């Protein structure tokens, strides 16, 4: 099946919905974004990768007040890979309750499933230095 403009729209909306669900505390709906066996790699935050959608929701609940109040995504770039698979690259901006912010890059593998497009793997890359440290 060809990768269409409708697929691009659906995947971009999927990636965007992450912030809406997290910021509103609707963590029971993360299965609308991720495969049940998602690998959510937050190792750059000093944690082990989260395995499965339930672990992602549980970690969000455990963070409680330490969660950002705003997850914003931008600069979505999609590249078709093997049949039914897309690589997505996007920028994330987190706004904390105290007004501080942080920047990450999301590297996603997105799969076409019977339920629609879902993220099966997400690597969160944290930005600490300008120019990726190559300045």
What does this structure look like?
By secondary structure, this protein is an alpha+beta fold. The chain has a single domain (5-133), classed as Roll (Nuclear Transport Factor 2, Chain: A). It is 22% helix and 41% strand. The protein has 2 helices and 6 strands; from the N terminus they run H-E-E-H-E-E-E-E. Strands 2-1-6-5-4-3 form a 6-stranded mixed beta sheet, with helices on one face. The chain is globular. The mean pLDDT is 95. It comes from Actinomadura rudentiformis. Residues 5-123 form the SnoaL-like domain.
Beta strands, count: 6
The total tally of domains equals 1
Q: Could you report the average pLDDT, rounded to the nearest whole number?
A: 95
CATH topology: the name is Nuclear Transport Factor 2, Chain: A
Number of helices: 2
Low-confidence stretches: none
**Beta fraction:** 35-45%
Q: Gist?
A:
With 135 residues, this protein is α+β, with helices and mostly antiparallel strands. The chain has helices at residues 5-23, 53-63; strands at 34-41, 50-51, 70-80, 85-95, 101-113, 116-126. Helices cover 22% and strands 41% of the residues.
SSE blueprint:
Elements: H1 5-23, E1 34-41, E2 50-51, H2 53-63, E3 70-80, E4 85-95, E5 101-113, E6 116-126
Parallel strand pairs: 1-6
Antiparallel strand pairs: 1-2, 3-4, 4-5, 5-6
Give a quick set of tags describing it.
single chain; about 140 residues; alpha+beta; Nuclear Transport Factor 2, Chain: A; 6-stranded mixed β-sheet; 2 helices; globular
């Amino acid at each position: 099946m060809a990768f269409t403009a409708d697929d691009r729209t659906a995947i971009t909306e999927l990636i965007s919905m992450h912030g809406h669900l997290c910021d509103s505390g609707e963590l029971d709906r993360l299965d609308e974004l991720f495969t049940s066996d998602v690998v959510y790699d937050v190792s750059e935050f000093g944690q082990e990768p989260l395995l499965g959608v339930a672990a992602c929701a549980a970690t969000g609940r455990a963070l409680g007040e330490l969660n950002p109040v705003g997850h914003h995504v931008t600069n979505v770039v999609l590249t078709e890979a093997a049949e039914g698979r897309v690589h997505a690259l996007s920028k994330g901006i987190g706004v904390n309750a105290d007004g501080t912010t942080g920047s990450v890059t999301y590297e996603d593998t997105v799969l076409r499933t019977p339920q629609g497009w879902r993220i099966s793997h997400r690597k969160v890359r944290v930005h600490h230095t300008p120019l990726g440290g190559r300045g």
